[in-house]
Structure formats: structure tokens, C-alpha cells
Design a protein that fits this description.
about 675 residues, alpha+beta, Helix Hairpins, D-amino Acid Aminotransferase, Chain A, domain 1, OB fold (Dihydrolipoamide Acetyltransferase, E2P), five-stranded mixed beta sheet, globular
Amino acid sequence: MSPDQARPRIAELRVEVARHDELYYRRARPEIADFDYDRLKAELATLEARFPEEAAAAGAETPTARVGDDRAEGFARVKHRLAMTTLDNTYDEAEMREFHARLAKALGADELAYTVEPKIDGVAVSLTYERGRLTRAVTRGDGEEGDDVTANVRTIRGLPDTLAGEGAPNVIEIRGEIYLREEEFRRINQVQEEAGEAPYANPRNLAAGTLKLLDSRLVAARRLEIVLYGLGFQSSAFCASQTEYHALLRAWGLPVIEAFRSVRGIDAVWAAIGELDVLRRGFVYATDGAVVKLDSFEQQRHPKIGFRGMTAEGQAEAARKLSPRWACAYKFAPDRAETRVRDITIQVGRTGALTPVAELEPVFLAGTTVKRATLHNADEIARKDVRIGDAVLVEKAGEIIPAVVAVLVEQRPAGSAPYAFPTSCPACRTAAVRGEGEVVWRCPNPACPEKVRRRIEHFASKNGVDIDGLGEEVVALLLERSIIHSIPDVFRLRLDDLLPLKKSGEVWAANLIAAIDARRRADLWRVINGLGIPQVGAAAAKDLARVFRSLEALAAASEAELVRIDGFGEKTAAAVRSWVSAPENLALLEALRAAGVEPAAPAVSGTVFSGKTFVLTGTLPTLSREAATAMIEAAGGKVSGSVSRKTHYVLAGDDAGSKLEKAKSLGVLVIDEAELKRLLAG
């Protein structure tokens, strides 16, 4: 290939890689698998190495010369004390051995000590602990500067605010990955699809999107988790190796990686990688490879090693360090299998969303037999041109949800025709509709049997009023026997209705009736959330319950009243008003009241903070964040995750960060713990 031939391909690859960087890092909505992205970027790097004049002409503008940028609007920017770099990666054993050979040559020794650990498919974050206390959490950003996500990270259960034990320097940056467990990923995606929104492709994308939410209450509801393993800035030297550092992280009470291995020599490294490939199926987080690091910190700092982007003498060649030469990620090839599409069926959600599903010839993939794969929506089917009878490649996205990643067009049967998305609901034959700007087709029929079933399931679920024993199978049975037809019918059930449904079902029936009776006084926010109002999740339902305190008051709420709720924009207010003003929904609320449903309004022990919004920042002397929040809410106040002109008070403790600065710039009143207690005392 000549330079003239290479130039247009290099330009094309730069545009394509940059586009995928934007989708992956900023939008958390990648269109291609990591494996395919890595191949594109590797091709670009190879061409730039072969034609260095092309790389020189682009400078830092080529994607191979910079770290992907995940910074988003709405967050304060924080400069890392020590740059957050990315890892070079490979899918090839020979390249792993070349990685070792380069280090062995530079250090003059062959039996080098390494650590091998899982490469977690999460969101990179850097935590700063000062004098043992968590003061800041920052995303990778562009490697030099990231977003301050401290409030969101503090919602993670299991992450201590204070390090246990001793041995930590006064200031230390501890790095790791934020992730979601499989069951939480499935739960959120189910809600997403039922709301007519595109589901997240894998837990990593969902974790990234969650971390960038501006309301930390919504973040807390999604149960993010974290694992820590990396070392950034340290105010003083305190340990000599990765192995020693890992032991200290555990001693400090921090969540650490599973299957950490200390080995010597490249053969032992390769054996540990193979072992990890087997073990990773049992981890609680998704993994996509193994990270190999020189164990010795002194060897990592050797002038002939250091970072790519630096000279052998340790001087920076470019504006930033790009990747460490002392570490490399071996990426496991994605689990893919070839199968055939037997049929394309349509699922109907509680909001009427019509979701296409590929029914597959069963194929064994990543430890399970896969028979179905989501196709997301009509546009996605058209983009990939998936047809009934097609041979396809199926991949487990994030090792969890099967997805059709490619159509093997060369194997397409003769006479095949493009899939025609149905124009009517498969459950009730009502003509489907698609709102302006939406990708989802919906069934508009409120009496559609599938919508009714899904609505009852949602109302009774743990996200709704939480009726123990009223799961999918029981709901389906009650509908099939025409014992119930709507949500209010659940509260009209009698023992005699249930006894014929199961042999020896007296105890089961009595328990279910008791569980239903116990939820007649369910918390108001649970009832509101269970009703499935568009744009309303658990956090918004709590806001509505706090402000209106009854279903009757909510039904009478004007759009102007709704938009005044902190966090409610015009779109949410309009959606709520549209729902509560619809005749069929007013009839539903009246039927619930007639069936004996009397939701419990939020308990308020005082009104000193009625209508006031608080934001908490920093570490309080004696109160935990949870305790302070409970005290404020009990007095009628609301706690928000971000400072705005609508904020009334910022409660600031030690090590308060950007929220304190923003409060001062907006003229928001700043108080401390002592002042909070004085205000509560009247």
C-alpha cells in the first residue's frame, strides 16, 4: 500500500473510531462490540506506524494519540493529580510474550514478578482519600481531567467513607471500576423497555449512564457497586509492589478484585490467564480480559519502562501519558456463536411498547443454551437487515444478554424478504402508533390483554406495592380464569376465588389474601410508582407523594404545580398531568379507592423545612449522610443531589468540594451541622 492509498483509509478510520469513542465514552451507547472496535483501532495504529508522516500530520488529533473522553455537562471538572491512562491490549498470546520480552530486555532479567487480575468491564473512577477519609471521586475524563461524581459514588453500598487500619499516606488516589450486577442490570432494563426506551446493551453502559445522572437519589436506586485495584497519586511512598498494595486495600476495608495472582515468568502469566478465563464466569461483575502488571513499583518507574508517550529518559514526548509500558491487557475473544433465526416475535410491554425478539435455533453460548435474542426496535431490525431464516452471529453482550451482532448475508436463503414490522398489536390487533421522535411502536389500546397483564405484574412487584406471592405465574393464572381483569380487582379477591386454583391451596390462598390486605395501606409513593405513570420512577414518585400526600390531590394537580417540584421539567410535568387527567386513569384511581386502597402518606414529624431543598456535601462531624437526610425529610424538607438556584440550603462538612463553591457563586445559604440542629430545634 502506498501513502496515497493509505491516506483515505487512515482518514476514514479516524472518523469511524472517533465516532465510536463518542458513543462509548460520552453517550454509553456503543453500536459495535469491543472486539470490533479494537480491530478498527488496531488497523489505524498499524497504518500510522507504517506511514508515520500521516500520524505526525494529525498530531494529538488522531484517536490513537489520546484517551477516550467521558466528560459530560452538568459536572464540575477536576484535574487528576496523576494522569489516568488506559491499557494497551492484545488478543494474541505471541504479543503477550513480546510484552514480556521488552520488559525483560529493559530490566536485564527474565524471571520477572507479575500480577494477573481480572479486567473488569466497568467505568473507571479515581477516589481520593485524605487522612483516611473519602473526599472526592472523579471519572477518567480525558485522562488529565475528569468529572466530579463524588455525590453519586457516595451512594455505593460497601464503599467506606473512612479507611480502616493504618498505613495509608495522608493523600492517596485509589482507582477502580464501578459496575452493576447481572440481576440489577436485568431489572433496570426491564423497566427501560416497558417505558418504551431502548435497553442498555450491557452492564457497563448502564453503569456509565447511571454514574452521570445529576440526581444522586436516582443513582442510589440503581445499586451501583465498586471494586478497587489501582494506585494513582500518593503523597508519600508506603508500599513496594502491587501485591503489597492489594493486601493493604483489603486491610483498609475496601472492596477488591477476586482471583488476584502473583506469579513469576511469562509461562506462569499465561497459565494464570487461562485459569482466569475459567473462573471469570462466577464473578459478580462482567470481565473481558486479564490485566498483567509488573509487580515491583520500582521496576515500573524504571526510565526505560514508564509510559508510552515518554522518552527513555522519562521526559514527556506528548501532551499527556497514554498507557503504561509495564502493564498490558489480554482481551478474551467475545463469546459468539452462529445460529439461525427461526422467527421474529413481538413482546408487548405494560406501556404498549412493541419489542421484537429473534427466536433462534438453540445454540450453546458462554455456558448456557441461547434460544432468544433481543432486536430492540423496528429501526434496529432495518439497520442490520435481520430476516427470518437468516444465519446470524449471536454474542452475549456483557456476558449477559444475547444479541444478534451480525447477519451472515452470504448464507441468506433464496427468496428471503426483509422483515415487515407489524402495523398492529399482536395481542389485540389494535393499530400500532409511534410518537414523534420515538423509535418505539406502541399499542394504544388501554384494554390490551398483554398491557393489562404487565401493568398488574408491575403494580404488585417489589418496585410497586410489593405484594408477596403475586408474581407473574399467579397473575397470568388469575387473568386466564377471568378472576381478575384490572389492578383494583386484586383487592377484591376472596379466599373462595383462590381455593380452586391449587390443590391443597388453603394455606397458599390465605397467605396471598393476607399479603394483599397488608398492602391496602402501602406507602403512597409505592402506589404512584406501581401505576406506571410515564416519566415517573421511584424517586419522582417519592417527590409526588411528599408534595401532594394523596392520590386525590395528585389527580387535581395542575401542570404549573407539577413543574415547580424540584427536578421536574416541563416534559415530566406534562406527562404526569396528561396521565392523571385521562378519564380511564381517573376511573382507575376511583376504583382503587372503592376497593379499599388507602395509601399511607409520608410521615412528617415537623414542618420547619416544608418546601425547602437541601444539598449535602463533605463529611459532617457526627451525623452520617443517611441520618442527616432522614432528619431533613422528617421535618418536611427534601434532599437533592445537585446545587441549583432552587436550592435553599447547602449543608457543608469537612472537605466540601465543588458543590460548596457552586453554592457560594449562586448565593445559596451554606450551613453546618450545628446550624442544622439549631434550625430543627426551631
